[in-house]
Amino acid sequence: MADERLTTLVVSERELADIETLLEKLLFDAHANFGMVLDRSGQLIATKGKVPQCDLVILGALVAGTFASARELAKALNEEDFHVLFQQGNEQHVITTLVEEQWLLSIIFDQRAYLGLVKVLAKETAQELVTILQQVRSHSEAQQLLAKKDVTTSVEHKIDALFRDS
Known about the structure:
Strands 2-1-5-4-3 form a five-stranded antiparallel sheet, sandwiched between helices. The chain has one domain (12-130): Beta-Lactamase, CATH 3.30.450.30. The protein has helices spanning 13-30, 56-76, 115-162, and strands at residues 34-39, 44-49, 84-88, 93-99, 103-109. The chain contains three helices and five strands. Helix 1 (13-30) packs antiparallel against helix 3.
């Protein structure tokens, strides 16, 4: 059975605009350079800010993989879970926060930003993203039900046409 948390959700233009607005506000308030929302498989949902000089698809996959690895480390340490991952470099730092077991919020920042502030603002933004994620889930479920109904109706019509008395 497929992991429901990794299934494809359809993000509408309105929901995408809401996500980008949240990212933009977070980057401005935290003095961060770049932010992205991605699903746990690493697929990019939204990005904002000064784009790093690397392939964003690869960056998303690496962030998701690193986060998955950290969660396995938590299990190995008999820790309930790691919900936030912080990576510190010489120039760039990354905070990645889990959003309801389905999305990741990842922020890249440098020395101009304060770690504590970035962490607090990322947590607040993640909580706001939960509302959007719930909307995305509702819309996706409605679309899936409609598509299923359309397929069922189409099949019924074809069966009726096959067995119709001529």
